[in-house]
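Dear colleague,

Following up on Tuesday's group meeting, I ran the structure prediction for the two-component complex that the binding team flagged. I've pasted the input sequences exactly as they went in, so you can double-check that nothing got truncated or mislabelled along the way. The structure tokens for the whole assembly follow below. Feel free to forward this to whoever is handling the docking comparison.

Inputs:
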Amino acid sequence: MEYTPAHPWTEPGPDSKLLEAAQRGDLSSLRQLARLHRASLWRACFAITRHQGEAEILFQETLAHATRQLRAAPTSRPFLPWLVRLARQVDAAKLRGKPARPSVGNRRPNGEPWYAGSRGAHWVEDEKTTLHAFAQLHADDQWIVALRLFERLSYQDISRVTGLSVARVMNRLALAREYIERVHQAEAA
Amino acid sequence: MNHHLTVQQLSSALDGALTGPSLEVVVRHLAACTDCRERQSRLVRHDDVLRRLLAAETEEAFLEALGSRGEDIAVAIARGVQPPPMATTVPLIDEEDPYQPGEPPLDPALGLDRLVAQEGGYGRIGMKPTASTQAPEADADEARRWLAAAENATDPNAFAAGPQDPTRHDQPEFELPSWMDESAARRTSASTPPREPQRLWLVPTPGETPTLPFGTSDIGDEDDPYSHRSLMPMSMDPHMARRPASMPAYPPALPPSSYAQMPGAYPESFEEPMAPAPAETGYATRGSAIAAARRRAQDARRRGLQRHWLIAGGSVGVLLLIVLALQLAPAKDKSGAIAGQGADSARAVPGAPDLRSASSPTPVDEVVPPTPRDAPADSAGASAEDAPEDSSNVEPQ
């Protein structure tokens, strides 16, 4: 069954039927459900971990946990927010009691080297500072920024996904951007 | 401008969330205020950087492969079977090599620029070492061969450095001069016995019972079977058969699998019996003589300590007797015994010399009283003062 939901974050689409079938033990529905949301889940895992290898592991772990907790998934609402919330919980549980991930690694998050090329070294430093500032944000604020910048959701959609008010979403997003700017100013000083 | 736009206004305008009068205010202000315009441009730049770094725009093939792996895991769990292991296409954070060059290799299509860059040392200057940071894995076969060669000292290549296989030599091979070959041949033909490496004798020689060299009577107290335990190897101790149950065997016996799990361990277990000692008795005798000497030294130390304790105890006892004797003697006025004090206070101490004051009559006066002298009347003036003074006329005061 080919289906491309326009707004998988806000529209349930065929999720409820597939989910009910998967909960009854239909493996093909389970595969279809995973295939439908794999791109969004991958982007979410990458934004959470900021590292390609870690994101691949988190992606697979999330699907494993989702299969085990499939009966707890809501059938009347979109499946993707529940899946991504599960990914955040799995990642938080993994990091509990352990040191936080480095804000800036030896390579870019996608594994490529921090090569300046023709842009110049200051460009790389600017990227590293921005990534470092993003890593310092609270996990909820990181998620709001990711929904806005990477998933390009509106304030209303973000409010529907996160359960926060629109005003709060706007305020948290503004404060996150201001924090990144202040980190840059501190680095420049 | 007296006031600037807030970050909420700039952020909302950036996201297209403002409408109506709010949007007009922001647009009008941005057209007139350079600072707010620059501030918003910085916010835009930060957003672009985050999208470039974290937007995760991947190829469809990668997503297809990753999705397949995830689906296989989910289906396996749903079926109740063991899921396949999770795999990644890049190393994890803990697995990354910090010494891997962070710069990409030079593009060979650069042509002359590439050559100039290489001549200038571009790409090599300041490059981190590319050698592996992992220690080479231990070769169990090589280690076993070394141990066997060390035990068999007749092998002339026992302690030769490098591998035995000459084809594995990295250094260029060369031939020794002929005179060196002849002298080496002459040395090997001499009737010199091979040097036996000294070995720690841990097991008794065949046919010899592990008895103590100084006889069983010198073992010591039977209640303390461990008195000599520290002086001899465990295998030589005749009390090993009677050790208490609480004493564990040493070394503790581990299952063979434990050794395989230990880093650098040999695949075989250590349960194989150790090689028997050579047939020479010299090693056994030497070992027992050393043990006997140690035992004698310990006995001497013990006897010396006992003598010292006896002397000390005797001295303390004598002092106690003296103190007791002084305490039990009849008590007298001890103050009169001190010189300079009056005779009234003198007390005779039994057994002690009769002490008297200087004014007391001498014993001579008591024994022989002074005779009265006949003195004339006209010599009434004469007084005893005229008489020559002698100590006998001195009246006690």
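Chain B has a mean pLDDT of 64.

Cheers,
M.
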